[in-house]
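It would be a great kindness if you could assist me with a short task in structural biology. The matter concerns a single protein, recorded as an amino acid sequence and a row of backbone structure tokens. The record follows directly beneath this note:
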Amino acid sequence: MVLLKEIIQTGNAPKPSGPYSQGVKAGEFIFVSGMDGVHPNGELAGDTIASQAAASLENIKHVLAEKGARLSDIVHVSCHLSELNQENVNEFNRVYATYFEDVEVKPARITVGSQLLGVKVEITAIASVN
């Protein structure tokens, strides 16, 4: 069995800063690369966890939309915060929850502390699509 892979690219999310795709559709899944807390033009989306989390999720939403998928199609997310502490996790969760409030089955998730380059938030996602 040959698994067809398709590159996903959109001008509505930041361009990759290295040798990777914004996303890849493989079979019935979409894999979205780590989306930082920056706007599509590369500008930092403010200096708070909240503003950067919102930008990251908006970027993911736009990558998914290129293949007709939505945030409700996400089955797993990996969330990276530059400083993992309860205050930052709470701030992140407040924003994150608004993007999935109407989703019956919330994605599986991991939130970890990571050394990030110049940002406070980076999120990857896997979505299931038909």
In short: Residues 36-128 form a domain with the 60s Ribosomal Protein L30; Chain: A; fold (CATH 3.30.1330.40).
